[in-house]
Amino acid sequence: MLLIIFISNYNYSQNIHLKKFESKELENERTLKIYIPSSYQIDSTKVYPLTIVLDAEYLFDVYVGNSILFAKKDKAPEQIIVGINQNQYGERYKDCSYQKENSFPTTEGEAFYRFIKSELIDYFEENYRISPFKTIVGNTLTANFINYFLVEDYPTFNAFININPYYAMDMPSMLQQKAEALKDENRYYYVSNGNYNSAKRQKNIKNTNLILKNIDNAKFVYKYNYFDNSTKTASIGESIPNALAFIFEIYAAISKEEFNKNIKDLSPADAIAYLENKYVDIEYLFGSNLKIREQDIFAIEPIILDKENGDYLKDFGEMINKLYKDSPIGDYYIGRYYETGGKLKQALKYYKNGYMKLPENDPNADGYYQNIERILQKRDGTYVEQNPKN
After folding, report:
1. Three-state DSSP state, 356
2. Separation of alpha carbons 389 and 309, rounded Å
3. Cβ atoms within 10 Å of 119's Cβ, excluding its own
4. Same domain for 191 and 262?
5. At which of 229, 247, 265 does a domain end?
6. What's 103's domain CATH number?
7. N or C: which end of the chain has fewer CB within 10 A?
8. What DSSP element (H or E) covers 82?
């Protein structure tokens, strides 16, 4: 964690500024830490997910450092990150206080809730380019508090990172009720726990996990981590990257786990639709206008080739040509579609189109030209099948 903090401070110090925010709800001034990615000033059309980090004195640097790393590795979008300092005068205890008799926020807690929902979010939506996707992060007591934004009628945030939450007595049942009733957009819910917590605290979180992991609602996307060999401080540095990988899985390129879980049993048409919808969701939620990554195209290639006799090779190739006009790959698949159907003239046309897109001295040129030679031989009746099947 210290290494992450050192690297992040070195790389992003110029992108962070402190802001004194005068709150009418709290009737006082709060100090915010604000991280704005460098690309914000370069592309005036790009929008960014917003993340609110409570306990900013402890969590902000670790979250920002990890967010930069994930964005550099193309595992998550760049984010605008706002940290709320709460530990100068022990503000967190008033901010996140709740009534023991019903687990709802106290008067001070309600004011802090309105400060985030009505003042802070409104300010950033009015003054910055914010995408629809919002995340909130808390630790121990503040991790309990962030759940009030989930159990409300219309959840304010899309993702909730609960690091070692100190759940109020009634919070598990409130979470269960809400998770079962969720509709429309997915809500991503991450929880961490570990043997560094007291036995009572571990039991509370574990019992909540037993409830949440059995929720049968696709809109409630859940992940739980239990750290066997850690400390409460070190678990912050473990929880945040695990949470980022979980929450932004849809943004990252298709992993082996995503393929096996969501794609491998699809028909070619459904696999193509899945890929297209994945990138529509990425653009809508995160404001990232990405072209479909080549590695994701190759991820679904086996399905297109192996199922339904290659009937969707043409659709696959046309999709690639729209995305990568200068690549020979799309023409190759369309050529293969026509060759499979015995339409040699059309196959030759697309193989030639693809070959012409290859740069001079491309090491793959000879291999690609074999497609053209094969079609010419088939047309002339001189083609001999290599390694024919018995």
Report:
1. helix
2. 17
3. 17
4. no
5. 247
6. 3.40.50.1820
7. C
8. strand 80-84
